[in-house]
Amino acid sequence: GRHPGLAEGWRLLADLAPLYARPDLALRAEQTEPWSPFEDPRRATLALAEAELAGGEPAAALALLETMPEDDVDALLVRAAAHAADGRPEQARVLLEALIARDPHHASAHFNLGLLHRDYLPDPARAEEQLQLYLETADLAAEKEFFRRVQAEFWLAELRKGREDAPAGSP
């Protein structure tokens, strides 16, 4: 890791490892990458926190994020995900709802809140509402939104089918 020329390789490994269900490699890449002293340390902190979270260590992710300002939106999103993964979905909900109150068009916050209501705070109606808001607020043409859009559309179809299949008289 003493060769700055390898930085791009470590970055690529960090980006690709989670796609292949190898958060261990993503974490190792982030820990090994020779960060430039001239680079914003914010990116390194966020990348390490995301790698810890992906590796199943939400407490380690939260510890890393303690140095980040409260108003850093990217840190807030990772913080919310870490709270949910660490068994505190209510704290995650409060963070995401506060972000949406400040920025009603924040697509990632709507997506994450939809996921939270789908998987952690079972409320299919709220999950459906938030995923629909994600689809209405996201820049769906952006390449990085492709997987999220497909996921949101799939979950919405599931939630709507569940609602239609529910027996009459159930909420």
Model description:
By secondary structure, this protein is an all-alpha fold. The protein is 68% helix and 0% strand. It contains nine helices and no strands. Helix 7 runs antiparallel to helix 8 (124-137) and helix 8 runs antiparallel to helix 9. The longest helix has 20 residues, at 146-165. It is globular and about 50 Å long. The mean pLDDT is 83.
The helix/strand order is HHHHHHHHH
Helix content: 55-70%
| N/C terminus separation | 56 Å
> What radius of gyration results from the CA coordinates?
18 Å
Whole-number mean pLDDT: 83
**What's the tally of helices?**
9
Number of extended strands: 0
> Can you summarize the main beta sheet?
none
Shape: globular
Low-confidence stretches: none
Structural class: mainly alpha
State the assembly state of the protein chains: single chain
* Percent range for β-strand residues: under 5%
Core attributes:
mainly alpha, 0% strand, 9 helices, 171 residues, 68% helix
Summarize the structure.
This protein is an all-alpha fold and about 170 residues long. The protein contains nine helices and no strands.
Topology:
Blueprint: H1 7-16, H2 23-32, H3 41-54, H4 58-65, H5 73-85, H6 89-102, H7 107-119, H8 124-137, H9 146-165
